[in-house]
Structures are given as C-alpha cells and as structure tokens.
Amino acid sequence: MADVRALPVPDGLEGERADAALARLFGLSRTRAAEVIAAGDVLLDGGPVSKSDRLHAGGWLEVTLPPPPGAPTPVAEPVPGMSVLYEDDDIVVVNKPIGVAAHPTTGWTGPTVLGGLLGAGHTVATSGAAERQGIVHRLDANTTGTMAVAKSEVAYSALKRAFKERRVDKRYHALVQGHPDPFRGTVDAPIDRHPSGNGRFAVVAGGRPSVTHYDTIEAFRAASLLDIDLETGRTHQIRVHMSAIRHPCVGDMLYGADPTLAARLGLGRQWLHAVLLAFEHPTHGGRVEFESPYPDDLAHALDVVRAES
C-alpha cells in the first residue's frame, strides 16, 4: 500500500533542490528521491515539481512513497489498558501499559501505541517513516508510563526538535537493587550495542554520550526507589546505567537483576516507570506537564518491599 505524506516545507529546507529535500525528509537516496519525483508522486502547493526545482519554506508538500520491502506496518486495533491522559489538536499523551511497543519493528508481533491510537480513532501526524508516524520518543515495550505522540505536522517537527535539543523534562521512577552511593548522583557513560549482539546495550568506549541523573526517594532493606532525570535518551539508558553502577532495576534479568528478589515481589519485568513528561506546547508555547500513576504490578512490588523493610 502506498504511503502518502503531506506536510509544510520546513524552514531549514528553504531554497533546497526538491530531490535533496526529499532525501533529507524521508531518508531516501538522492537517486531514489529523483525517481519518486519523476514518477509524478511529489506535489508542491498542488502542482508537480521537477528534481531541480527549489522549495520554499511553508509550501505544502504532498509525497506518495511506496513502502520499503518487508517494512512493518501498524495494526490499527485498540490496546487494552492504554489510557489517554491528554489530547488536543496537536498532541495526544497516553499512559502506556506493559507489553506495548511504541511502534512496529521487525520481529515485534505485539500491540503498539501507534496501532492502539489509530484503532481507537485518533489521528496522528503523517511525518516520519510509515511505521513510526507521529512518534517523537519511545519507551521500551515493558517500560510503562507517560508517552506523547504528535497529531499535527507542526507538533511533530517541534517535539522532535525539542527532544533532540534536550528541552524535554523526562522523569522516571526506578526501584533498583541495593543502595546507590552516593544517594544522589550522575552517571555519565557512553552507551552502544553490547558486543555480544544479543539485543542488549552496554557502556562502551566510543559509544553515544549518555547522561543519567538520579536521586533517592526512599531506601528499603533490599532496594531503593529512585527519581531519575534523563539528560539524553538512549535505548535502555536507565537500565544500562543502573546495571553499570551495580544497582540494576529490580526484575531486570536482562541486565543482571536478582531473579529471587523479582519472584518475591511478583515482578515479571523491570521496575521502571515513566512518571512525568513536560515540555513547551508546540503551538501555544506554554509549559505542559503530564504524569501517570504506577501500574498495579509496580505498586504491588513497592508495597511488598516497603513492608519487608
């Protein structure tokens, strides 16, 4: 099925050749972008363009892209347990439940936030690859909590930029094994894929810069509840950094957690929750802030570890 995108030409592409602009916008090669233009699948303000035409900022671009071979597509069906915390014309903020990925990926057959929103009748921005439309940040499938999705093209561009420029407040709570020393601190260590290639990530020399700030909310006999502020947003960042300082998230067996403790607390996944998300609204500019409560499994585990202390 063809993938139709419609969006205003971003300011940063003012004066760019059409083929170069398409390549940048959609991750195409320059040759592939020229082929799409030659096929008549690109309109600017309702009219066809040639590959050498120069684009003007704000012009309305309509592009029809064929899906890449084997690309996953979102299954539009409601996701049980996923609630909407806030919605307007530009954004929708959800409380993501356990076992739900942000968007389709190769090898993932479970539900997704994107598919759940589409299945419930919500609109999302058409910017981004077909399987990631509207997605401006992600949570691991088994990490619960607050997640924002762009509905308008303006919101998509603004939020992607805000995340890239680290102007978004991303707060997590994590129950970790033991007691970090000091109780408040920063982990500044580069992250990349684990050399074993088994899906894990690790602190690796020459990896991508990654910074995690943590503060102890409450200390228990066997664990500590931390408030975590992410300065960067790498895949598995909190899980990797907590494991690196020998205080893995309780229940996170992939990163060295104690399975006995996890079983005692009734946990089948890492104790990690995206509790708060705050940013400048993409259209009115005011600060907006969204919070989500702990899900039942994390709340129960916290009650047990507190009772044992």
Structure commentary:
It holds the Pfam family PseudoU_synth_2. Its EC number is 5.4.99.-. Residues 90-244 form the Pseudouridine synthase RsuA/RluA-like domain. One of its GO terms (molecular function) is RNA binding. This protein has 3 domains: 3-65, RNA-binding S4 domain (Structural Genomics Hypothetical 15.5 Kd Protein In mrcA-pckA Intergenic Region, Chain A); 68-165, Pseudouridine synthase, CATH 3.30.2350.10; 170-274 and 297-307, Pseudouridine synthase (2-Layer Sandwich), CATH 3.30.2350. 20% of the residues lie in helices and 28% in strands. The chain has helices at 18-26, 30-38, 113-119, 153-164, 237-244, 259-264, 296-307, and strands spanning 3-8, 42-44, 47-48, 60-65, 83-87, 91-96, 144-150, 169-177, 184-188, 191-193, 201-203, 211-219, 223-230, 272-280, 287-291. α1 packs across α2 (30-38).
